[in-house]
Specification:
single chain; about 150 residues; alpha+beta; HIT family, subunit A; 5-stranded antiparallel beta sheet; 5 strands; globular
């Protein structure tokens, strides 16, 4: 059952325009407070604290979702780097930030320094527009894999 005090749990109610995908175990969306175009939270839908709190099904499917989401973000943004970060301190509910890093980002703001771009980079309409594009590519990636599996 979602914890009403948990930001990540509250994302069950996110605006559909912010969502890339939602399945039984996982979701990916533009997160409240992190509305930077090309940034998404990949989150366990169940309130599981830390990576080690995931159950067997969540653990078995995390990598595929992370791979497909990063691939879709790369294709849509053309970013030279797409980061997958998970700290688990401020929000203990397991999630990973998938963040596109544009070529214009100076070297001192690359890697963990990218988080410094949050305050100036927030733009909900642009983030939601990009989420729609990422959603379409994500769905193509999933369909392509399912089609290949049928062959």
């Amino acid at each position: 059952m979602p914890d009403r005090e948990c930001l990540i749990c509250s994302m069950e109610e996110v605006d559909p325009a912010s969502r890339v995908f939602l399945d039984e175990l996982w979701a990916a969306e533009v997160a409240p407070g992190f509305e930077v175009p090309g940034w998404f939270f990949l989150r366990a839908r169940r309130h599981a604290e830390k990576l080690t709190g995931l159950d067997e099904s969540e653990t078995a499917t995390f990598g595929r979702h992370a791979h497909d989401l990063v691939s879709a973000v790369e294709q849509v943004t053309g970013a030279p780097a797409v980061y997958l970060l998970s700290f688990g301190e401020t929000f203990r509910h397991f999630h990973a930030l998938v963040a596109a890093r544009g070529g214009e980002v100076p070297p001192e703001l690359r890697g963990y320094g990218l988080i410094q771009l949050l305050a100036a980079g927030r733009d909900l309409p642009a983030a939601q527009a990009l989420a729609g594009d990422v959603r379409l590519v994500y769905e193509e990636i999933v369909r392509g894999r399912e089609h290949a599996a049928v062959r």
